[in-house]
């Protein structure tokens, strides 16, 4: 049986549906941004790309966790 997706990744289907871009594309934008701090990246996604706070936060949290 498949376990339900938890944490930031649980937002991914709704992010792709709402904004029309795959999560991998958002993550690449985050990775290539000159910004490095979590809340700076969240604010940038909200201001420049129109993401809601929860969606931006989930993308940033998941992407930055991959670096660790």
TrEMBL record:
Cross-referenced Pfam families: DUF4287
InterPro entries given in the database record? DUF4287
Report the protein name in the record.
DUF4287 domain-containing protein
Q: Which organism is it from?
A: Streptomyces kanasensis
């Amino acid at each position: 049986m498949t376990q339900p997706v938890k944490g930031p990744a649980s937002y991914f289907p709704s992010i792709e549906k709402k904004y029309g871009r795959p999560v991998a594309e958002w993550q690449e934008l985050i990775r290539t941004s000159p910004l490095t701090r979590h809340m700076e990246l969240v604010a940038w996604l909200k201001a420049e790309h129109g993401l809601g706070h929860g969606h931006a936060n989930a993308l940033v949290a998941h992407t930055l966790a991959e670096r660790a």
